[in-house]
Amino acid sequence: MIRYLKKAKPKTRAITYKTVCRPILEFVTHTWSPHKVKHIKHIEGINRIAFRWVFNLKKRDHIFDLMLSYEWDTLEERRKIADAKMYYRMLSGNAALDTDRFMLHFSKEYDTCHGATKGTRSTNVAKFSYRHRIHRYL
Question: Do residue 114 and residue 67 come from a single domain?
């Protein structure tokens, strides 16, 4: 793809990235969203490489301010928005949800002050799952 769009305009490159690559990076993020800093940096690195490619920037160019001025969202922000959208879909009943396997709200035996279950957060799988992550965002 990069080879074929070598002489394309930045707008065309941006559209290509946003329609071909970014959906792959964002597919079902409420299921696999990373919590380790090294994984987040790795995925954000792909986003930054794409930004440099779209606007023909070099590695030594500082792009943080440029990304803000072009309103190029980080993938972490987009994952949070996707989580919130999924939460709304679950609340409104528009998401296919197996209520026997997934409980959206916590019952009385849960510690709702911290948004987590008592005694079951010993693993990172439980700590950073969608169910606990969404309550930290809200």
Answer: no
104 and 93 in a common domain? no
CB atoms within 10 A of CB 13: 20
Domain of residue 124 covers 99-138
Please name the residues in contact with 61: beta carbons below 8 A apart, sequence gap of 6 or more: 52
- Total domains, the chain: 2
Tokens for 45, please give them.
């690195």
Q: pLDDT tens per residue, the chain (138 residues)?
A: 778 898 899 999 999 999 999 999 999 888 888 888 999 999 999 999 999 999 999 888 889 899 999 999 999 999 999 988 888 888 887 877 776 666 665 555 555 555 544 445 557 667 777 777 887 776
CA distance linking residue 137 with residue 84, whole number of Å: 8
Clarify whether residues 130 and 119 are in a common domain.
yes
8 Å CB contact between 53 and 13? yes
4 contact partners, CB below 8 Å, separation of at least 6: none
In this structure, which amino acid lies at residue 103?
M
Helix (H, G, I), strand (E, B) or coil at 62: coil
